[in-house]
Amino acid sequence: MAECASRIAITYILKQVPVKIGLRYIWKGIKWEIVTAVLATLYFRYLLTESGSVTSLFQIITQIGLPFILVVIIAPMLIGSISGTPQMGIGILLPLLLPLLGYISVSNVTIIFAGIVFGYTMSPMHLCLILTNQYYRSDLNKVYPYLIPPLILLYISAVSYHLLIGGL
Questions:
Q1: What is the pLDDT of residue 135?
Q2: Helix 106-122 crosses helix 68-83 at what angle (to 10 degrees)?
Q3: Is the pLDDT of residue 58 over 70?
């Protein structure tokens, strides 16, 4: 970022662009919808982390009495779709689920990670999805029919494979 800014500054100096005109170019060149989307996503992630709503959601899911395999499959999808980032889902879910699993294996972690990736990839909070749709001016409702079927197939394949080789 700093390298880009320094190149712009050097170009403006070499071309002797007046400061007022240079600032106007920069102001007009910023895509404010994208800046707003990024800031809103970061703020939403902060709200989720600080409010403890994800931990409460996980407690409700486990108190309902669902079979543990469904909790391990459903919770990561929900957390991934709420957070919009895999890092946040991993940071929240692994400390909650791994002690309940009793042992840590590649299969267990992969099933959890696959659910998080599935959830965040289809999430309207997924920043890459938002920015790509804004950039190409596409309709998110028209993107989902192409996005969801391969994601479901990929998720079912990952869970099935790891249940067969490692089980829960």
A1: 87
A2: 40
A3: no
Residue 63 in contact with residue 103, Cβ under 8 Å? no
Q: Is 83 exposed, middle or buried (0-12, 13-18, 19+ CB in 10 A)?
A: buried
CA of residue 64 relative to chain centroid, distance:
26
Mean pLDDT of 73-88: 82
- Name, in order, each residue with C-beta under 8 angstroms of 144's C-beta and a sequence gap of 6 or more: 122
Lookup result for tokens 């409010």:
51
Dihedral sign (CA 85, 89, 91, 92): positive
Distance between alpha carbon 8 and the CA centroid of its chain, in Å? 32
| Residue extents of the structural domains in the chain | 1-30, 32-165
